[in-house]
Amino acid sequence: MTANVLAVHGGTPLCGEVSVRGAKNFVPKAMVATLLTAAPCRISGVPDIRDVAVVRELLELHGVRVGDQAPGELLLEPRDVELANVADIDAHAGSSRVPILLVGPLLHRIGQAFVPDLGGCRIGDRPIDFHLFALRSFGAEVDKRPDGLHITAPQGLTGTTFELPYPSVGATEQVLLTAVLARGRTELRNAAIEPEIIDLICVLQKMGAVIGVDTDRVIRIDGVDRLGGFTHRALPDRIEAGSWAAAALATGGDIYVRGARQVDMMTFLNVFRRLGGAFEVDPTPGHEGIRFYHPGGDLRPVALETDVHPGLMTDWQQPLVVALTQAAGLSIVHETVYENRFGFTEALVAMGATIQVYQECLGGSPCRFGARNFLHSAAISGPAKLHAAELTIPDLRGGFSYVIAALAAEGSSTLHGVSLIDRGYEGFLDKLAALGARFDVLG
Ligand code: EPU
């Protein structure tokens, strides 16, 4: 998608079928895992999104040959991994959060790594202190310079034991990707256990790693001397599936999401049903997909709290809030993963929604942000008659939410910065068009 400015004409329910491929928050990590071996690796279900393109370029800079076998299928050949030019890596500064995850594998492979300024959505501070703490406890030395982090491991990397202050997805992946080839055993407590992490563990196990996921968020990894290649089909993108589901509800539509998998979306499906949405899991043998639709009548208000898995994913929050503007009554949303993920509600208010954000922990147990002045709870009063507005896309999920709000609104909205959405949604405009959305590309 190259379009950056759209005129979106509201008032048409989104109806039809879209497909989701592999998860944005898994595929780039599986690509990084190839640095741990010299053998060829195959990944299928790869979405055509910018986060994948950035990691592909970073791997190529480090000597990995990446070829397209078929649509959505990559062959990665990491036989000749080499040091990349710092200036070339730096050209990717600010474009993704994944570069930090190359560190452990590169330290094993070539003894040094460079991390430029990280990108990703501006939805909170998004520090990397857990990553650096983990790397240091494996024996890495981190040199902070003005251009970024230069990391080495003069004595090699050795297994370690520690507990994460919070079950961070990225830090857990960092530990997994580093521990599999470290000397001895690593024990990580308070680890993240998102389905994307379990799929990464499956990849590493196929490569020859020894990883146990115990009860109570404890992961134990026994380091091995070498790892082999793998062939793996990525788990489907449950965030994209949930985003289209919320779009069906917000616009009064009916969307079949081919590829959506019930087991990854249990918590979402419960919320969707409580809100008044209806869904059907495809019963056809060999078919994976879920039909999400607005069954008519009023949507119901709900009280929600985002959380780490198996809680309600923070990435579903923004699209769901648009649907909640259409529920009859007062909904409460407590965001406990990111301290600053309600900035996008200002635009919804400008479109006629009634949303008030609070620094208190509303409707759930106190979280890390309650005493720290972060506006991380929202009260949404509906149903609101949304009207058109001129908006600038703030971040990936907020951007998707603006588009569905504009589709649910009366009149024609102008949306700037739409290309940001292709970081995480494959073929976004084609899918919108296939669902009957009315829009014009203005620039
Ligand atoms: N955190 C720290 N220090 C760290 C790392 C994290 O304080 O060193 C905090 C973060 O600031 C945040 C919380 O821990 O408050 C959780 O962050 P986490 O590390 O779990 O997030 P991440 O790995 O940076 C991934 C996804 C996000 C998704 C989160 C949570 C990728 C590339 N990104 O981020 O996806 O929201 O996990 O599930 O995998 C998105 O897709 O829109 C997106 C933002």
Quick recap of the structure?
This protein is 28% helix and 24% strand. The chain is of the alpha+beta class and 443 residues long. The protein folds into two domains: 5-20 and 236-441, Alpha-beta prism (UDP-n-acetylglucosamine1-carboxyvinyl-transferase, Chain), CATH 3.65.10.10; 27-233, Enolpyruvate transferase domain (UDP-n-acetylglucosamine1-carboxyvinyl-transferase, Chain).
Keywords for this structure?
443 residues; UDP-n-acetylglucosamine1-carboxyvinyl-transferase, Chain
For the record, give the distance between the C-alpha atoms at the N and C termini, rounded to a whole number. 12 Å
Beta strand count: 23
List the bound ligands: uridine-diphosphate-2(N-acetylglucosaminyl) butyric acid
**Helix/strand structural class:** alpha+beta
Q: What's the mean pLDDT score?
A: 95
Q: The CATH topology of the largest domain, please?
A: UDP-n-acetylglucosamine1-carboxyvinyl-transferase, Chain
What CATH architecture of the largest domain would you give? Alpha-beta prism
Beta-strand percentage range = 15-25%
Compute the number of helices: 13
Fraction of helical residues: 25-40%
Task: Outline the biggest β-sheet.
Answer: 4 strands, mixed
